[in-house]
Structures are given as C-alpha cells and as structure tokens.
Amino acid sequence: MAGAYSLDALKSDVSKGLIDTVLVAFPDMQGRLIGKRFQAQFFLDGAIDETHGCDYLLANDIDMEPVPGYQAANWAKGYGDFVMKPDVSTLMKAAWLDGTAIILADLVDHHHHQPIPHSPRAILKGQLARLEKMGFTANFASELEFYLFDETFRGAYEKGYRNLTTAGYYIEDYHIFQTTKEEGVMRLVRNQLQASGIPVENSKGEWGPGQEEINVRYAEALTMADRHVVLKNAIKEIAHGQGKAVTFMSKWDYSLAGSSSHIHMSLARNGKPAFLDEKAELGMSTLMKHFVAGQLAHAQEITYFLAPYINSYKRFQVGTFAPTKAIWSRDNRTAGFRLCGEDTKGIRIECRIGGADLNPYLAFAALLAAGIDGIEKELALEPAYSGDAYNGKRLREVPKTLRDATESLRKSKMLKEAFGEDVIAHYVHTAEWEQFEYDRRVTDWELKRGFERT
C-alpha cells in the first residue's frame, strides 16, 4: 500500500495532535487483524522498529484457543514470542476511527529474525519472489461480499444468531432503491476507506436481501491482500459504529445466497500485460494459457486455501452463482474460473471458488503457486467449457467437503514444494482441527431432526 500515508505525514499529524493512536497489526491464519494499539509517540520512538507477540497467535483456532499438535508452537516449547516488524509501506490513516493510523507488520523469529514460514504474509511474499525471478509481477483484485443486518453484533449473539433481521427483505442484486436504504453504512464504508488510502471503485447490492459487495481497484498482489484484510476489518467496525452487524460467512443461511470473494488475477512484465497476445485466440498469451492450466490442474489441491471452514462448503450449491466445477469458460458464471476482458489489455482470469471467509494472503499464494507450476511445466490448457457447468458431465469437481479438500491438500506435492512441507503440515493440522471441532458438536439441525423422532 505504498504511498497511502507517509511516515513524515504521520509524524506531522502526531505533533499536531491529530493522530494519537497507531494500530500495529498482522494477519493471522484466519485473515483477521491481530495486534496492539500504541500511543502514537511511543510508536515513533521505538515500536516502529519492532514489537513482540505470542507465537500461539499462529497456532490457534477461530475461537483463539491454543490448538494442540502444532510443531511450530506448543506448550512443550512454552509458547514464546515472535517479532512483529511494521512495514512502513502499509502505513495508512484509519479514517473510520478517531485519531488512529494503522500499519501492518511482518512476523519474524525472535532469535534469528528470519520470516516465520507459516505466517500468511510471508507465504504470499514467497510466491511473489518466485514470480520476480521469472521476470513477472502479479496484479489481483478480490471482490468481497457480505450481509448487513439491522442488528448489533451483541444483539445477534444474544439471539443465538437466530431470527436476525437483514438490512433488506427482498432480492436486491444491483437494486438502487434498496441499496439507498443501506447507504447509511455503505456510504461511510466507501468514503472512509477512500479517505484512508484504499481506492474504492463501487459498492452494490448482491443477490440476497441485505447482501452487499464492495470493490476496490486492481493492485499488486501483496497490496491487494493488505487492503483486503484492512477493509474487511473496517467494514465490521463501521457497521458496529452504526449499531449494525455484518457477516462474512460463506453461507450464513441455508435458504439465502452465499457470500463469495471472487479473485481476479493477471501477470505483467515490465509493467505491460503478460496475459495479452493480440494475435492469439481470445487474446490469451501462451503464458496465460499455461498459468490457467496450472490452476485447473491443481484446483482441488488449493481449494482449502479458498474455502477454509466447514461452512465454506455449504456455499457450493447448483444454481446459486457459486461454482461446483473447477473448469474454465468464457464469461460464464457457472464455471469455477472465468475469462474476463478477452482481447483487451484488461484480460484476466477470475477464480470464483473462494468465499468471503478466505484469507487473501493464503488464497493468492495458492493460486500463484498453481499458476507458476503451469508456467514452469508448460501445461496445455484444456478447451473452454461452454454452457451450464452445473449440469455438465464428467467435469472436474470442486471438493464438496472440508474433508475432501484437506486430503487433497495433504497429498499436494506442488504445494509442498512451493510453500515447504512444514508449512503444508501446519495448515493440514489447522484443517483437521476445524473438522474435529465440528464433528464432536451437536447442532441445532440434529436436535430439530432427531430430538423427538429418533
């Protein structure tokens, strides 16, 4: 996010009393911002160089519980510290919070100061470094969807998340009148993100009642991931400030549309589109064909990083605009991968598999690793699928459950080579813990179905 807010500007604002708090945060395995709030002058006096955090923060679950069985951090090792090193290029104002700036940090080892290999930001940086050696940069955009509720977060909790009132009560996809009713929150989201240095393109109503989408400009991959986690956190805080709640769950209600995070991506060489060949069919360069072929070949292996929870797989339903087949097609929203901008400099591939609950660093890194493998092996791209992929026969499936995706992740030689075997083992363990926690719980569905009738 270079250029969003300079260190000199921060110093000036601190001296004028305009900024009194600096939030130092890093993305955890769930893609949440985790960190500390510093008095601004103390941050400038020393914490700008580094601060510390407990290493269990990359070895816990979504409930913040320390999870047994990780090799990187555990009770036997005493859950020591790692170092949070602020990245000055990510410094920005948090316009939605009073007197606050925010800066993202990389995580490094407390002793030798090498990157923590399983930290999400380091994983993405590793794949971008591979691309750089090949002479390429990557540009990404993630479209975030979420539901807005006429409830507070505390109120939703006290209701047991049942009988919640969405901000709308009918399908509102692109519907201007309904989204006008939601402008109290969405206008703040757009304007305060823009004022903070995140360039917003637009917001719109999505398919479900009270479902929103926010889009920000295409950017270099690391910058886009940084923006993704900040804007997701900001949306929650802005909604909270307005007495509203939001959810980024992939599928919060069986009867309503799920929430996605479609990911658009392309490569560039020396600032010029590397995916475009004006003489080729559809404008797809040979490089692009290899890249997409790699993503298709490894689609099942990388799905965990696009769909990391039990709930993520509830979204993959026929006829819901969420894909069930990992194939590619021309401008076809039934396919897992969609060609966009054909024959133009904006040519790109859109991955439609990911849900709004994904961690952007891990998702981007996995997509890049698969694409790089396709380039290195010069994989041939299969023909584009035409028609309704939901009902297509003998097509490559998106894994239907977390169990299936975890098994594909466990067996992935490509990801072990790209991320490191220890990193993959770390995230396989994360997936297995998610499954274990679910398997031992009694759900409302089970009670309703079986309390009387079994």
From TrEMBL:
The record's InterPro entries line, in alphabetical order, gives: Gln_synt_N_sf (IPR036651), Gln_synth/guanido_kin_cat_dom (IPR014746), Gln_synth_cat_dom (IPR008146)
Molecular function (GO) terms for this protein are:
ATP binding; glutamine synthetase activity
Looking at the record's lineage, which domain of life comes first? Answer: Bacteria
Q: Which family does it belong to?
A: Belongs to the glutamine synthetase family.
Annotated GS catalytic domain residues:
120-454
Q: Does the keyword ATP-binding apply?
A: yes
Has the keyword Nucleotide-binding been applied to this entry?
A: yes
This protein is called Glutamine synthetase family protein
Gene3D superfamilies to which the protein is assigned, alphabetical? Glutamine synthetase, N-terminal domain, Glutamine synthetase/guanido kinase, catalytic domain
UniProt entry keywords in alphabetical sequence: ATP-binding, Ligase, Nucleotide-binding
Cofactor(s) for this UniProt protein: Mg(2+)
Originating species: Paradevosia shaoguanensis
The record's Gene Ontology biological-process terms are: biogenic amine catabolic process; biogenic amine metabolic process; glutamine biosynthetic process
UniProt-listed Pfam families: Gln-synt_C (PF00120)
